[in-house]
Amino acid sequence: MRKLARNTTFKKGVVVPSLVFILSVSFISSFFPNRMAALLSQVQGFIFTNLNWVYIWTVTVFVFFLFFLVVSKYGSIKLGDNDEKPEYSFFSWVSMLFAAGMGIGLMYFSVAEPISHFSEQAFGQYDEIRRAKDAQLYTFFHWGIHAWAIYGVVGLSLAYFTYRYKLPLSLRSCFYPILKGRINGYTGDIIDTFALCSTFFGITTTLGFGVVQLNAGLVEVGVMAGRGFGYQIAIVAVIMAISIISATSGVNKGVKFLSQTNIVAAVILMLFVLALGPTVFVLGSFSEGLGNYINEFFDLTFNTHAYEPGVHPWFFSWTILYWAWWISWSPYVGLFIAKISRGRTIREFIGAVLIIPTAFNFLWMSVFGNSATWLDRNRLNGLLSSMADRTDELLFRFLEFFPAAGVTQLLAIFIIFIFFVTSADSGIFVMNSIATKNAVRSPKWQLVFWGLLLAVLALVLLNAGGLSALQTMTLITALPFSLLMLLFCYSLMQGLIADSNYYGKGFSPATINWSGVRWKERLHRILSFKDRDAVADFIRNTVDPSLRELAEEFNRRDVAASVTAAGDHTWVELMIRHERIDNFKYGVRCQQKEVSDFLVSEENLPDLDKHRTYIPESYFGDNRIGYNMEYFVQEEVIADVLRQYERFLGLAAEVKNELFTDNSFKNTPDDE
Which residues cross the membrane (predicted)? Predict the structure, then answer.
């Protein structure tokens, strides 16, 4: 055991509670599947019925938050160092986005979802054409920008804090601006435990239900004779064996190669259906559907069907369930997206994550879904609609109506199989990353451990009928996690603001004309953190004499100038009054400044033992933001006033500034 402990990168604070919770839930779901499913279904029903608006609003916030970042100045910030280059080529990157995100679902629902919406009784009052259009619209909605915005928020937060702030690739890092150093304590462990359990349950349920579809497809093409548990064991064993081999070979080899292979295979299948199906109709309906989606975007985004109680069952079992499912999967997908996105800018990340997969999803769903509804309406007399509840079989039955059905069905099975493998191996990689706090190198037996645990529990739950209960619990946890994701947005915004301030910070105006003269005095001032009395002494001994000397020269040249100072010398100002234009004012005041905890605790800095210091800060009559004057000597104070006065006269002399500088009719505090 000691040798094993030395040869592991597992973090006990994350792995132990996670395994206890995973095994406990799996045990209860296996031995009491019906009771567990009934209880959780009631909880899910209550949440979906009474709190569906929470899902709607949180997803809406995610969408518009990402839109804001794209057009903002923060969009140019890189996920990494400023000179970071992307780790993967654009094609490899996009291929892996699909593999980890929605690859399996595209195969599973490409025919089933449009047919389900088309045959939905809640829309029975509409004519056939309206139902076909709405079927495409709702499919686009569920697989479009909103879904990828959920993944994008988690992935962007993780990638930003990991590569920009050098924090672990872990959900705890997303709370860094809020928790700061506490992310390395128990609070951080709790967050990662939640992420690990959510990822494990999401992959387990997907693996279990996906095996059923693969089994159905293999039966359809005659590879397997039945759908018994023994066949399902064989499928899981093959999938997980390849997944473990792929995961242990690393993302650069296994996942990338399989993802690229599968994208090519999927495109071939899509082009086959497009070419031999109702091609003109599909391309025309794709264009029309895209316009319909854009036109209805805001209505779809905010719609809760509050005035349509008859639509509620469909709304809860499709839109709300989808949002909950995408949210529950977002820790896993977000972690994987973050892992492969180093070196991209925020604008590039959001644009690619939201637009490219969405565009492909729309084309894919149009080719398969619209072909299916067209066949159902024009050739099959509702045959596919009558099978709407047999989701596992619909894709394969649909392909039967095309030439070379056996070949295309085998290709579909191959694509589904590889999508499962890529989801499983990327899931194994992500879970090990969470469990080790993103250790650089981990022994391969840990990856094997996660793969075997996934396979065993998926089969146990599948055999016992506990997968439905596990899936329901996963969907329920999406509600609190959606609220945590709102905190991700807040934390990310705080991080971006600090980032922008840090890299946008220029040199102090006092340093612009520095030379090597009097450098020791400059160094002393830089290393000195001043109290109020020290700033008052600077104003009294440096600024006040400079302003009075300058005022005396102004008055000698027939320009009336005066200097006013506080009795304690916490401020002093030079004033030149005018009748037609604004008064010129140049002042310096004592200003408090907060100091970060990190700087206070830094031992390699002298004279700082408090969380605040004071600086002499300039201010002006036009309320512009001032700057720190602490490094100025008397000649530099005079030069700075003259620089500001020359700017003032230059602005007043320009005709285009008359509206702003005309003071003849203004009531200012100085005139009262």
Answer: 12-32, 52-70, 90-111, 140-163, 190-209, 229-251, 263-286, 315-337, 349-368, 410-435, 447-467, 473-493
Residue 435's contacts (CB-CB under 8 Å, 6 or more residues apart) are 10, 11, 14, 15, 18, 196, 446, 450
Looking at residues 315-344, what average pLDDT do you find?
Answer: 88
Amino acid (1-letter code) at residue 350: I
Provide the total of helices (H) and of strands (E) in the chain, helices listed first. Answer: 30, 4
Token reading at 366: 């149009």
**What is the Cα–Cα distance from 333 to 507, expressed in whole angstroms?**
42
Decide: residue 31, CB within 10 A, 0-12 exposed, 13-18 middle, 19+ buried. exposed
pLDDT tens by residue, 159-182 = 999 999 888 888 899 999 998 888
Q: Token match 């709407």: residue?
A: 388
Give me the domains of the chain, ranges plus CATH numbers: 2-497 (1.20.1740.10), 519-661 (no CATH)
Q: Lowest mean pLDDT: which of 2-6, 417-421, 506-510, 650-654? A: 2-6
Burial of 463 (0-12, 13-18, 19+ CB in 10 A): middle
Tokens of residue 543, six digits: 């600024």
Spatial CB neighbours of 359, under 8 Å, sequence gap ≥ 6? none
Q: Which two tokens stand for residue 584?
A: 């010129």
Confidence of residue 263 (pLDDT cuts 50, 70, 90): confident
